[in-house]
Structures are given as C-alpha cells and as structure tokens.
Design a protein that fits this description.
Helix content is about 25%, strand content about 40%. It has about 150 residues and is of the alpha+beta class. The chain starts with a helix and ends in a 5-residue tail after the last strand. It is built from 4 helices and 8 strands, in the order αββααβαβββββ. The chain folds into 2 domains: about 80 residues, K homology (KH) domain (GMP Synthetase, Chain A, domain 3), CATH 3.30.300; about 60 residues, Ribosome maturation factor RimP, C-terminal domain (SH3 type barrels, Roll). It is globular. The chain has a 5-stranded antiparallel beta sheet with strand order 7-6-5-4-8, with no helix packed on it. Strands 1-2-3 form a 3-stranded mixed beta sheet, with helices on one face.
Length: about 150
C-alpha cells in the first residue's frame, strides 16, 4: 500500500475518530497476512478501551472496505515509543529529538537516515543532524518516519 493510499485511509477515518477524542496517526498494511494496522493517539495516551471503540467503529465501515479492496484483518494500536510521524504538526512536536526517516528517493546521496531533527524550514525543508553531518530533504519526499526512543 503506497503513501497516497495510506493517507486516503487516514483522511477517511480521522473524522470518525475525532468524535471519540482520538486521532489516527498512521496506518500500515502488512500484505503477508492482509492486516491493516491503525495507530491511534490522544493527549495523555490511549488505553485498551479506546482501541476497542475504534475497532467497533471501523469494523463496519463500508467506505474503508472499498479502499482496502480485499478481505483483511483490522488491528488497532497505540503508537508505542517509536510513534509514526506523518503530518507537519507531528514533526513540529519532535524538533530536537531523534527520528528515523525513509524517503521516496535519494536526496544528498541518501534515502534513509537516523538523526536529530534540527529544524523545519517553512513547510518544505527538513534538516536532520546525523553523525556524518547535516542532511536536508523536502517534506514531500518522506515515505515513512518515526520517532526513535532513546533508552537512558
């Protein structure tokens, strides 16, 4: 499932989750067992009851079924310590923290990297500080990104 398909699913389900005081951070598709994973959050975090509520809302969603276009398993989860980052707002909240980024194509000779998100220039350019130096890339090139939990 590509980025556009995942974004379309997030846009479809977020208004429904907002009614529950929740946000869909990201969705992932595991084609090996036809599983759609939906990562949800709310201020203060989510509990099992939140996951159950979202499951009951989405399990009967015919629009979602049409987007997935095959039989699938639905999993609802909290984002965990390595929370996905998808929107500009998500990234703004983690400036100064370590993130992992996968791009759709190479920028400055790399397509993947782990480093400290140093800055966001407007809505377009991100700067990551890595052991090898600064790496700058456009927001639109991000295929997947997540926060990297630092064990201390």
């Amino acid at each position: 499932m590509d980025r556009l398909q995942r974004d379309t699913i997030v846009e479809l389900i977020n208004p429904k989750l907002a009614l529950l005081g929740l946000e869909c951070l990201e969705v992932d598709w595991d084609g090996s067992d036809n599983t759609l994973r939906v990562y949800i959050d709310r201020p203060g975090g989510v509990v099992m009851e939140d996951c159950l509520k979202v499951n009951s809302v989405l399990i009967e969603d015919e629009e979602l079924d049409k987007l997935v276009m095959r039989d699938y398993r639905l999993e609802i989860s909290s984002p965990g310590v390595d929370r996905p980052l998808r929107t500009l707002e998500h990234f703004k909240h983690v400036v100064g923290q370590t993130i992992r980024v996968h791009l759709t194509q190479k920028y400055q000779e790399r397509a993947n990297g782990v480093g400290i998100l140093e800055s966001i220039d407007g809505q377009d350019s991100f700067s990551l500080i890595m052991p090898s130096g600064a790496w700058t890339f456009p927001f639109k090139a991000i295929r997947k990104a997540n926060l990297m939990f630092e064990w201390k």
